[in-house]
């Protein structure tokens, strides 16, 4: 009886351990996926949002969005570039954003007649100090101040075959770093993921969240109506008072780069009195990494910090839990057998 009790106790502890692990896994996953807002209309900031039928877009003094280059505004989409070579276009919010915590949802569409690998170059979503400055980085200026999310559809670096394109990446710049097109921005990339965003027959979305020093980028491009983690980085510092925008460029290869909507949501987050008293407009864009972004040349995953649990991590945790149960069961069985043998010797 005692042996069975011992085995049951060990198995009970194993079950308890597995339950704790599962609860932890679910909790971690929820932190990421449940944290992305479902588009709460109460917190939508219309002065920073671009939506059909795009009223208030133009160069008039009352407009909240202005555009440049090849950008074409229709009633159902904003086309940053047509499917033609050597085009650049952008659209920018004219109202600086003073929210400390925010989330931007972008509905976009990249499509064209080019066959696989014969299209380019991609879209960039910006939160920067300057706006309407055309340049070589997806239609915008280089050495910018602020944040950029690149949706890069064309591989320039033929040595970087360890990742598939289209590729989504993030970069934070204090004005001193140049984007290296030849290496697909690898030297300054903070993290990224591959995503099939081109010529999809359904809506494609990107969510960018900045809250309490954490930058999270999620995608919804598989017509599943759910966000999938792409980038999650801590130690990020971004000021208030910058502008949101989107730009795109084509080179020798081309695509239609369309923005359907950009919706900004205010996140209701409490800050410490010290944080509240800071002049957030004076913050310099930066990120505290455990290593230099340049090291990312040899680390294409861009995993600088503990990211939320991805599928393989969950699998490893569950595998470890299962192995723990097996080990406990074997130990229990051995102990039980030894106890039985000892009892036989006594009789």
Summarize the structure.
The protein is built from three helices and 16 strands. The protein is an alpha+beta fold and 347 residues long.
Strand line-up in the sheet with most strands? 1-4-14-6-7-8-9
Shape: globular
Distance between the ends = 16 Å
Residue runs with pLDDT of under 50 for 5 or more positions: 2-34, 291-310
Quaternary status of these chains? single chain
Q: What fold name stands as the CATH topology of the domain at 44-283? A: Jelly Rolls
Percent in strands? 25-35%
Q: Can you tell me the CATH architecture of the domain at 44-283?
A: Sandwich
Number of strands: 16
Class derived from helix and strand content: alpha+beta
Largest sheet: 7 strands, antiparallel
Mean pLDDT: 83
Element string (H = helix, E = strand): HEEEEEEEEEEEEEEEHEH
CATH class designation of the domain at 44-283: Mainly Beta
Helix content: 10-25%
Alpha carbon gyration radius: 25 Å
How many distinct helices? 3
Pfam families: Lectin_leg-like
Domain L-type lectin-like: 42-267
Membrane topology: Single-pass type I membrane protein; Single-pass membrane protein
Transmembrane segments: 314-336
